[in-house]
Amino acid sequence: MNIEVNYVAVLIAAIASMVAGAVWYVLFAKLLQKIRPLTAEEQQQAQKQMKAMFGVGFLLTLVMSEVLFHIVAITQDVSHLSPVMNGFLTAFVIYIGFVVPVQATHIIFGNYGDLAKKLKLFGINTGGQMVSLLAMGATIGLMR
Asked: What is the pTM of this model?
């Protein structure tokens, strides 16, 4: 199977993912601060590193977009769905199968407070990953 990669689609899908994730975290910023408050020093350190963190995050999102492009292309060959729905559902299956277990394990065993805080943090973080991945999958499906 020869998959011709549409690099413009990969780039736009990565941008769509980052935008969706940013909107998600803006919506939940206050709740996130209540669950996991940062000291003034931690906030200052995070702001100093913001450009580098977004840069690395975007590079990782590009890698994810490239991989998702290949998986969407393969599933489209066997799917009877529209390309957008195929991209969306493929991203959702990857989210359920890979992101949710990894995030759950990280938060369950992490030092994030009591179970109620952990569940809220899990919902915010995995929700953000879900909307980002779904935006990426739908974009790839649309542009492939």
From this structure: 0.90
